[in-house]
Design brief:
The strands form three sheets. Strands 2, 5, 6, 8, 9, 10 and 11 form a seven-stranded mixed beta sheet that branches. A three-stranded antiparallel beta sheet has the order 3-4-7, with no helix packed on it. About 10% of the residues lie in helices and about 50% in strands. It has about 190 residues and is mainly beta. The protein folds into two domains: about 30 residues, no CATH class; about 140 residues. The protein is globular and about 50 Å long. Strand 5 and strand 6 form a beta hairpin.
Length: about 190
């Protein structure tokens, strides 16, 4: 009797696996991987350089159990030569002795000029946010100040900041490996 139950159970598992179209080992392997894009910094000769302006800068705070702070920057970038993906610029935040950037791809354009509008998360020790051409080349910066609030502090954009200010005189470590897309849901014809 015991062997009959075991045989029936194994048969049911085999049928369920065959219907699902997977093997037991693959069934627990998780969703398919995301697409990975590797951005690159746009290199310029010493005679030319990419430039940027910041025409709008605003700080935002959202509450998700804790306060989450963001700096929003808009402006224009003029590259030293034509660029699009996989070349990237970044927004970088600078705190007490550190810099950290978030890369964004250049938008395709037939000209060297491009508008941008992006956000970067900031923390209460951040003193500045910049648009950077690479980890050590700052193109435009604004200062970030913090004002007391009921439950802590809130960020305020203080105004333009020189790109050689001591507040931003460190490399902004930036991850140029970006995961995009994601697992495709079953039956989604347009998702691939």
């Amino acid at each position: 009797m015991r062997s009959s139950l075991r045989t029936i159970a194994l048969t049911l598992v085999a049928l369920a696996t065959a219907v699902a179209g997977t093997t037991p080992a693959a069934a627990g392997s998780g969703p398919p991987p995301y697409k990975v894009t590797y951005y690159k910094w746009l290199s310029c000769s010493d005679a030319t350089a990419s430039t940027a302006s910041i025409t709008y800068a605003q700080a935002h705070t959202t509450t998700e159990g804790v306060d989450v702070h963001w700096a929003e920057l808009h402006g224009a970038i003029t590259t030293c030569r034509p660029a699009d993906t996989p070349y990237a610029y970044a927004l970088a935040m600078y705190g007490n002795g550190y810099g950290s950037g978030e890369a964004f791809p250049y938008a395709y354009s037939n000209s060297l000029a491009m508008d941008y509008a992006n956000f970067i998360r900031i923390y209460p020790d951040v003193q500045a946010v910049c648009v950077i051409a690479n980890e050590t080349t700052r193109m435009a910066c604004v200062s970030v100040d913090w004002v007391p609030a009921e439950a802590g502090v809130l960020p305020v954009i203080g105004g333009p900041l020189p790109t050689d200010s001591p507040r931003v005189d460190v490399p902004a470590v930036t991850n140029l490996r970006v995961e995009t897309g994601g697992p495709v849901p079953p039956g989604c014809m347009k998702c691939g």
